[in-house]
Amino acid sequence: MAQQGEKLLACIHCGLCLEACPTYVITGDENDGPRGRLYLMRAVAEGRLENTSDAFRTHIDRCLGCRACEQVCPAGVEYGQLLEASREELSRAQPKSDFTDKVLRFVLKHVWLSRTRLRLFFGSARVFRDLGLPRFLLKTGLARLFSQRAHFALALLENSRTIFHTSGKSVPSASQTDGQSPPVLLFAGCVGGGLFARVNRATERVLFANGFKVSAPEDQVCCGALHAHAGDLDGARELARKNIAAFKSGEPIVTNAGGCGAMLASYGHLLANDASVAEAAAQFSSRVRDVSQQLQTVEAEAAPLNKKARSVPDTTNGRCVTYDTSCHLLYGQHAGDASQQMLSAVVGPNFVPLEGSERCCGAAGIYNMLQPEMSGRVLQEKLDHVRETKAQILATGNPGCQMQIGAGAQLAGIKLQVCHPIELIDEAYAQAGVYGDGE
Ligand code: SF4
Ligand code: SF4
Question: Which part of the chain has CATH 1.10.1060.10?
Fold first, then answer.
């Protein structure tokens, strides 16, 4: 925490960040805003406040980590990094003892750091989901017999399902590309690979159709975002080192998950003090891009995405589509615009903008499980705006946001299907026969 002192001093207390902060807007409490949290961090760093105090824990825990405050800060305060350091400080000083937190720490340590156990974990979740058990429990109302948290968790899992038919299509192999195709490496992600494999397949197909040779390194692991959010920076570093080794070949690293992308892009900072890997970590981070950013690189040269998009029929069958920007895609990767542009290439006049699209949806990693009350209030604002759009489809570039908004809409009785923007492109390409066999 002492190392963070200089960064904390960058805040000039102007308060311009307050209205951008979802938790401050909800509670009106200065300590639930970025400036107040920075005061608390500074008080701890200067020894005026115990790092075990209730005030420090409560207000740091309540932060979504959305980084909307960074975007509007004229002093360039690196809030996200300061927050991560505070969470590490908290978890070292006084690990929480409630049941949910104990389970979380156990799972992050003993499941997430082991590829075999993680596969088993997601394999079981998939079987449970694909047998229709969450749907059954939710539809019959039996889910209400569980705790509110478990009820919502079932809705999250249910909303990791696909809404498109293209998900069963095969993915072209790298050998089908010609020697000229620029190679890219796909970062699959743990939740992405476990529950959203169809989004990864759609990403591969669309990249392939736009002339890229895609491969996914076998030894890749989770990005470490969940560990970093939970204050386990050592766990995050362990995963980061493995990914740096897995992706050592030097090509662009493409992700379709805003949360993972922002984490991968921060490896340079995460490992800056480890001389053995600091340079490789910084290089790794500089190669990370969202799929929409990668597609923009070919658009600039030959516009194949737009050319194909212009030739495709209406993917949405007349249904209105809206778009919610993942905070980490927007503030962590600065790719919110690229993603929306990619989407509008195939949605056209059926697109309806979502007010507050840049605001967090309340998912924030596993914040929705750890802070269900505040997460629910943040989500409510999002759902109110979704209702106003009258959209039937919402696209968003992060699996956590997909599940959160889908679950919220389902439980609130809003008829909404949620997907990733790349799934809409993929579906449009399939309908237009871009993959060669039409639909
Ligand atoms: S990260 Fe988000 S919730 Fe946290 S202080 Fe910044 S704006 Fe507020
Ligand atoms: S906008 Fe930046 S400088 Fe101003 S109070 Fe917020 S964090 Fe501090």
Answer: 2-93
